[in-house]
Design brief:
Length: 476
């Protein structure tokens, strides 16, 4: 529609798979599956429900009569009752037993849990693919020296691959958090209006064991190990906060990566992929803006802030149920999943196509490394018989002279030449440049990268190898 607002996260950014999970079709077919699971379980526990009734319900799982439901909702202002009516119109045999003993949250809340769980599994898959792409990058550039930065000031060198392990490690922590969240996944079950199962206790003529068995059967039929032990009318809204906290953590990791890459692109050391016909600026045709990384940052910021919504909702629920959660969670939960899906699709695209410029990296390295190497040069000169205090003062003065040349005159760093021309150091320019070889300053960067990839990343990638997928098309 061109005359109505459409969520950009849905229309521009998220993948088809994630958008389907939060679609009306997914929602309402899951409602119908839950109604079938309820009827089957009640029949198995002795209620007067026939196989013919259930068979008729199965026939219309995916054939949803939306027009009927929407017309009824306009009349009665209740979405669940409208869909019960519409389902019953298609299934006249089953009409008397659809939703028997249940409250609206039976379909609404259980469906939300099912969808969030499936969505988190898709996020898990996306995350594994990003880790795989970054691991390939880290392996390829594990021994390429580069300046490290603290406070965005040049610091003791690292390697391009070692820096990538920092990004991967954040994502591995996120993956571990997802695994823990999925391990404890459970449904609301069939708890009734205030969570007491009073209506089901009446249906089962006071049989408490059948009430407990009902929850267990429904959970098994829907692919879950169990249900929350107790509840009000709804599942604990803290679950929504836990889910979005997981997503916020992923957003934080992606934000860190995208900011690092934007800074590296400014330095012209590493760039995100840039397509042949891509336009960087409407005014400045030469520009190659880090658009994808900027979008990751932008969406990540939204998710981090959005995670406050379920936190406030969980903390302000009254007793067994209020409805001030409903409108908020209809927006905050799906949009968070859609946004993180978009972030990880972009992250995979960028990580798979990073462009590295070793000559630029080396040139910038060599502009700064003479300052960092002065202690090594001084110690070498002392070994040749020089006076440490005298040499220290000379290096201090030469360093300031060279820094002035770089900063004020825009010239190359000539500190090596200044030192080589002073006989007090007793060292030639070729000998100085031998000391300045980049690989001499990166410590165990290469070895740490190899060890990290072998012991931390590789086992995870092997464990979840089936989840490593193809690139998802970036739409805008």
């Amino acid at each position: 529609m061109k005359d109505s607002y459409v969520s950009p996260i849905n229309s521009r950014y998220a993948s088809k798979e994630m958008k389907y999970l939060f679609s009306p079709d997914k929602k309402f077919t899951t409602w119908r599956k839950l109604w079938i699971a309820l009827a089957e379980s009640e029949r198995e526990l002795g209620l007067d429900i026939s196989e013919e009734q259930i068979a008729q319900m199965r026939e219309y799982i995916f054939d949803i009569n939306y027009d009927t439901a929407e017309a009824k909702e306009k009349e009665i202002r209740h979405d669940v009752m409208s869909h019960i009516f519409a389902y019953g119109e298609q299934c006249p045999l089953a009409k008397p037993i659809i939703h028997l003993g249940a409250t609206s949250c039976y379909v609404g809340d259980n469906t939300d849990i099912i969808i969030m769980t499936e969505a988190l599994r898709l996020i898990h898959k996306r995350l594994v693919s990003v880790i795989s792409a970054l691991s390939d990058f880290a392996e390829k550039y594990k021994d390429l020296p580069t300046l490290a930065f603290t406070h965005f000031q040049p610091a003791q060198p690292t390697t391009v691959g070692k820096r990538a392990t920092l990004w991967i490690q954040d994502l591995l922590m996120d993956l571990e958090t997802i695994d823990e969240q999925l391990k404890k996944a459970k449904l609301l079950g069939s708890k009734g209006t205030t969570g007491t199962q009073a209506s089901f206790l009446e249906l089962f003529e006071g049989n408490h064991e059948k009430c407990k068995a009902l929850d267990k059967k429904i959970a098994e039929k829907m692919g879950f190990d169990g249900c929350f032990a107790v509840s009000g009318q709804t599942y604990p809204r803290k679950l929504d906060y836990q889910m979005l906290s997981v997503l916020s953590g992923i957003a934080q990791s992606a934000y860190k990566f995208s900011n690092d890459l934007r800074l590296l692109q400014h330095l012209k050391q590493v760039e995100e992929p840039f397509e042949k016909n891509q336009v960087g600026s409407s005014a400045m045709a030469y520009k190659r803006n880090p658009m994808r990384s900027e979008r990751i940052s932008s969406l990540a910021r939204y998710v981090i802030v959005d995670a406050l919504n379920p936190a406030i909702t969980a903390s302000t629920q009254w007793f067994e149920r209020t409805l001030d959660d409903s409108a908020n969670k209809r927006i905050s939960v799906p949009e968070a999943f859609l946004a993180v899906d978009a972030i990880l699709c972009l992250y995979k695209n960028v990580a798979s196509g990073l462009v590295v410029y070793p000559k630029v990296i080396n040139r910038q390295f060599m502009q700064e490394i003479p300052f960092m190497a002065t202690e090594n040069i001084m110690m070498d000169a002392v070994k040749r018989g020089g006076d440490r205090q005298e040499l220290h003062e000379k290096i201090r003065r030469y360093s300031m002279q060279a820094a002035k040349r770089v900063k004020e005159d825009g010239e190359e760093n000539n500190l090596p030449e200044l030192i080589a021309n002073d006989s007090a150091f007793g060292i030639s320019l070729p000998e100085i440049y031998e000391l300045l070889k980049p690989e001499k300053f990166v410590g165990r960067s290469k070895e740490q990268t190899e060890e990290f990839l072998e012991t931390c990343a590789a086992p995870i990638l092997e464990k979840y190898s089936i989840e490593i997928g193809e690139d998802v098309e970036i739409t805008v």
